Amino acid sequence: MKLEISANLVKHYLRNVYFINGHSYAGKSTMVRLLSERYDMIHCGENYHGAFPREVLSRWEQPGLCYFDTMSGWEEWLNMTAEEHWRWTQEVQRECVEVEILMLLQMAASGKKIIVDTNIPPDVLREISDERHVAILCCDPPDACSKYFFDREDEDKQFMLAEIEKCKDPAATRENFQSWLTYRPPMEIDWEHTGFFTYTRSDFEHDTREEVLHILAEHFGLDETK
Fold it and tell me: Does residue 32 contact residue 44 with C-beta atoms inside 8 Å?
C-alpha cells in the first residue's frame, strides 16, 4: 500500500492558509511580509521550507533538496547549464510540495491565519486550497528579474554574488548565472492564465506597496475576518 492523503482532507486543515505564487521580482516576498504584519498572520517567507530538519531528508527520496549536501562546492552549482539548473529546480519544487504541505499542516494546528510565499504550483494549489486563498503576482516584462536580480539586498542573493566572485572565472560564472534567469524551459507555467486571481507589476519606479497590499487584502477578504 502506497501512502497517499486525499487532497480534500489536506484542504480542510489548510483552510486558514493564504498562498502567493508567481513570477520572480513581482513583489511576492514583500507582500507576504506586509500582510503578515498588518493582519497578524504567521509569516512563511521565501524558502521558509529551509527550516525543515535536514537530517530527516534522504538523498534518495529528496535528491534535489539534498544537492547542496553532496555537491563539490558552490562553483559546481553556479556553473550548471541553464537546462541543468531548470531540471534541478523542477525536482526541488516537486520535493518542496510535500515539505511545505507538512510544515503548513503543523502550523495550521495553531488556528492562526498563515500567509505563504509558496513554491507549490497552481495545479496543486487548486486541489488543496480555493480561489479566495490564492493570488498570483506577475511581472511585465516577466524576465524583469534578470535585470534587477542582484539589486536586492537580501542575504541569499548577496551570498550568491559573493560566491560568484570566488569562482575561477567570475565573469563567465555570472554570465552563466544570468542565463538561468532568461532561460525559456520546454514546460513553463502560464502564470497569467492559471484561473486564480492575478495582479501584474509593471511599475518598477514608484512605491506601489500600499496599493497592492490593499488589493490583496481585499481579494483574501482579510478585513472581513478581523
Answer: yes
Q: What is the pTM of this model?
A: 0.88
Which three cell numbers mark 167?
Answer: 569562482
The residue with greater pLDDT, 169 or 153, is 169
pLDDT grade, residue 90 (50/70/90)?
very high
Write out the chain in H/E/C secondary structure: CCCCCCHHHHHHHCCCEEEEEECCCCCHHHHHHHHHHHCCCEEECCCHHHHCCHHHCCCCCCCCCCHHHHCCCHHHHHCCCHHHHHHHHHHHHHHHHHHHHHHHHHHHCCCCCEEEECCCCHHHHHHHCCHHHEEEEEECCCCHHHHHHHHCCCHHHHHHHHHHHHCCCHHHHHHHHHHHHHCCCCCCCCHHHCCCEEEEECCCCCCCHHHHHHHHHHHHCCCCCC
Provide CB contacts within 8 A for 198, sequence distance 6+.
22, 135, 136, 137, 138, 191, 192
Instruction: Please give the C-alpha separations between residue 85 and each of 22, 124, 161, 184, 221, in angstroms, as whole numbers.
Output: 19, 22, 17, 12, 38
Sequence-ordered list of residues with C-beta below 8 angstroms from that of 137, at least 6 positions apart, any chain? 20, 21, 22, 23, 26, 27, 28, 31, 198, 199, 200, 201
Q: Which three cell numbers stand for residue 200?
A: 501584474
Confidence band for 150, pLDDT divided at 50, 70 and 90:
low
